[in-house]
Amino acid sequence: MFPSCCSCCPNTHIDFNCIFQIFGYLKPRDLLHLARSNKALRSFLMNRSSAFIWKKARNSFEPPFPDCPPDLSEPSYANLAFSHHCHRCLKFTNTRVLWQFRARYCPSCTTLM
Ligand SMILES: [Zn+2]
Asked: What is the pTM of this model?
């Protein structure tokens, strides 16, 4: 059973198989948003045992997105590739991935490097 997110919604217990089925249809960016929505989902999605969910989401693109580099976790890879916030100033703006630095920066922060 998936844990309740808070005491005010005790009827949110859902079977893990249902969670896996639902999450299997999501894109990596959707999973990132879910992982940032509450502690229970974050704990569940950031756990290494949930890596297959991220991998399935990543492989839902045609052609499939490249495999996760060995130095990154699946959620870190998704954050780098699919989130649009600058890793330095945290602004949601026009950013680009600097793969060699494993970071995503906006133009202002890129010039500060
Ligand atoms: Zn920035």
From this structure: 0.80
